[in-house]
Amino acid sequence: GKCVVVIGGGDTGNDCIGTAVRQGARQVINLELMPQAPGQRAPSNPWPHWPLVFRTDYGHQEASLLNNGNDVREYGVLTKEFVGDENGNLVGIKVVDVRWEEVNGQMRMAELPGSERLIRADLAFLALGFTGPEH
Q1: Are 13 and 30 in contact, with CB atoms under 8 Å apart?
Q2: Which region holds residue 98: left if phi is over 0, alpha if psi is between -120 and 50, else beta?
Q3: 2, 33, 36, 85: which could join 75 in a potential S-S bond, CB 3.0 to 4.6 Å?
């Protein structure tokens, strides 16, 4: 089986995770740029807006079986570089941990020094960019 990294979340990320498991992946890691969502709706996220709360879906549950029952999601991780071998095959992804801080009323991302690392990857799925339906 392959070491699969899914970059991004949402329904697409979850589908990529579940499909990778069913296709025989040896390991699945899901990288999330944002921090883990809170367990309940925050005061800054009132109804009728979509509730930004922590969720576990079928793909996360299936992949956790490959990870000794632990969540496969890593939060606050920025992808820096795809690493290939001499034949151009993906062998890893360089990442760094980030923290989010408010600066002049805007959220800004800051890399955490010393947190750089290489994640082994044979296959990467990009599951990011959806912000809503067009009107």
Answers
A1: yes
A2: beta
A3: 36
